[in-house]
Amino acid sequence: MRERLLELLKVSERPTPPPGSGDSPEIFRASRRYFHYTVISWVPKQIAAFFGLLFSLAFFGSLETDFIQAEGLDRFMGLLEQLEVRVGPIETNPTDFFWFFEGLAISIWTLQFLFSALFLKLAWELRWYIVGDSSLRIREGLWSLREQTMTIANIQNMKVKQGPLQRLLGIADLEVHTAGGAGGEGGEAGSSDDSASGFHVGRFRGLDDAHALRDRVRKLLARHKGAGLGDRDDSERSAGQADRSESEELRTAAAALLEEARALRVALES
Question: Which of 103, 131, 160, 175 has the fewest CB atoms nearer than 10 Å to its CB?
Fold first, then answer.
């Protein structure tokens, strides 16, 4: 079923490394504990939706309870039951529409509960991170696949974020801020402040060791900056070598000019 769903959605199981990844980019998923984190965050939403459904059923009288007593609504429903509506050869009662929509609501809640539980696991399995020599890529999403590619040389800042529940589970997020970097296909934008200042944000969610990834990216960034701007000592050394070479050429030219002057003097004297 999983393979058929991926084929139907035209989603590959593993991502494609971005340009500049090098020969052996690191490709990894979010921590399994991040999957547990999404499940824990999903449960309260389902409980709230379930109690909302029970409340609506009790309010409209399909579920008998002592907690909800709506006498005005009961009288209103009693009046509707006395009415008859004819649609062609079919006779119906307005209250039948209430029962129809309540049944529809129960069916929708049940289907979304089953499918959202299934998609939680698939969404975790399809969340991939790639760290290459000169680029990063984040791929996430199931219905809407999003790939965000960032150039390491454009990274301006990195932040490790960890909420209380994440701290309890031992995971954290790494935010990578790039200046002037364009997100990949459907890439996430940063906050309004980041967008206004020309920054883009990539989020590596649910990492076992966000600090280790941050340190690795810092080393790659330092290597790129060193290769691009050059070391100060190397620049000074190159400048000194150029000065010495120029002095040697001047001395050689002066010596040749002196020899020619001497030869001319000898020729004039003779």
Answer: 103
